[in-house]
Amino acid sequence: MTTLAPRDRHPYFMHDAIVAQPGAIQSVISTQKERCAEVAAELSRKRRMYIVGIGTSWHAALVGASIMDAGPEAFACNSFEFCVSPPRVTSDDGVIVISHRGTKRSSYDALDVANSLGAYTVAITSTDPGPRILVADDGIRTVDQEKSAAFTISYTTALTVLAMLNLGMAGRLDDPASGLDAFPQQISDILAHEEEVRQVVAEHQARRRFISAGWGANRANAYEVALKIKETSRADCEGFQIEQLLHGPFCSLDSECLLTLIAPDTEDRGRSADLANAARELGAPVWALTNQVDTALADAGAITFPLPDCPEYLMPIASVVPLQLFTYHLALARGTHPDLFQQDDPLQAAARTHYDL
Fold this sequence. Notes:
CATH class of the largest domain: Alpha Beta
Number of strands: 10
Helix content: 40-55%
CATH topology of the largest domain: Rossmann fold
Distance between the termini: 39 Å
Number of helices: 14
CATH architecture of the largest domain: 3-Layer(aba) Sandwich
Order of helices and strands: HHEHEHEHEEHHHEHEHEHEHEHH
Strand order of the largest sheet: 2-1-3-4-5
Mean pLDDT: 95
Low-confidence stretches: 1-7
CATH superfamily of the largest domain: Glucose-6-phosphate isomerase like protein, domain 1
Number of domains: 2
């Protein structure tokens, strides 16, 4: 079993951001509720919503399009593609642009395009964003700009805003049954299991490949953990929609892969258990994040991590937190720096001079 170095064990900004999430989510809920209600009222009058982002913010857009069902039909768009080949946006539509810092070119270019087409625009971004993102008709603020390039706390707080917008369009922002009041504590409870995550990393950090799969809104988190592992550890990893994994990509699994299943109690027709049983035949270990009360995953040999009993629109926030912890501890175990976007690697730094973000 790999043992982490003793130097405080958590010397990086990424970890600071992960463990600060309960307070940050609580702050967003309390300080942005009124603004979310106002924006939700505007969005409710629109024909369609386009939720736009790049990188991790595109994953947030995918979550948003999955959970925002109380207002007009929502579509997720990649910021770059929104600029290059815009959908048929009109003044009858709303465009939500998500950006961690409000400084990425594709994000503010997408906002410019949306404004030029007459759409009602909203920017979900940091408390101190870059100036070009401020041209949105309305803005909702999350957290201070992150010091780590891994973007963890700004992702979960952006998802919190999207959930609040949906509740606002449903007229339920102040509903005690919405789950918002209890949610920061549920995130704290997840963080209390950090040692369990570290032990999974210690056992599997030397795997050749890491594959993740989820369904519905959680498929975005399968993509997200693969992205974060690449950014922080340079490890070989991929994320899949759970059924898509079975239609070809599963052929690449073997005993050198760790399969992570994001499997809350949703209608995936038992595919999580099917995958776990199939992986067992290959000798591939399975780590499953679940709040299911049955034992199908454990019976299939999966190591399970407990997710809270929270509404479906909050589950993508809850499920990504253990994945963030996994990503962080994997970087430490493999001896890479989780904060720097691999810019401490001279070759990556040289390559970075050929493109901007």
